Amino acid sequence: MNLTSKLAEVFRIELSKVPSVVDAASGKAAWPELLGRKGGEAKAVVERERPDINGAILVPEDAIVTDDYRCNRVRIFVHCKTDDDYANAVVSAVPKIG
After folding, report:
1. What is the pLDDT of residue 8?
2. φ/ψ (deg, to 5) at 35
3. Less crowded by CB within 10 Å, the N or C end of the chain?
4. What pLDDT was estimated at residue 20?
């Protein structure tokens, strides 16, 4: 048994459910190239490249969010204050499915 299989067994993770940057079945699962771009631009790219994602959400980087995993959601964390314009705020973390 290799290390990856052992970790999957210990943590009871089905590795096929953890996306890589490119998910062969569905397309992209992460967008590192959007780091540093405006939130509105990043949201448009995610929605264009993955039309099956019905939850591309702009979120302040210090927001409290749920810990659940959803394969149809991408949270786009942006650097801004809570009342700022999220679409014009800078993306502060790599957007990814989850």
Report:
1. 52
2. -60, 125
3. N
4. 46
Q: Which helix (H) or strand (E) holds 62?
A: none
What is the tens place of the pLDDT at every residue in 41-68? 999 999 999 999 888 999 999 899 999 9
Domain positions in the chain: 19-97
Mean pLDDT of the 7-23 span: 50
Give strand pairing partners of 56: 74
What are the structure tokens assigned to 22, written together?
A: 């490119």
| Gyration radius of the chain over CA positions | 15
Two tokens, residue 44:
């448009």
List, in sequence order, every beta strand (DSSP E) within the chain: 22-23, 27-28, 55-60, 73-79, 90-91, 96-97
| Predicted local confidence at residue 19, as pLDDT | 43
Is 3.30.870.10 the CATH classification of the domain at 19-97?
no
Q: Are 49 and 28 in contact (CB under 8 A)?
A: yes
Rounded Cα gap, residues 13 and 61, in angstroms = 27
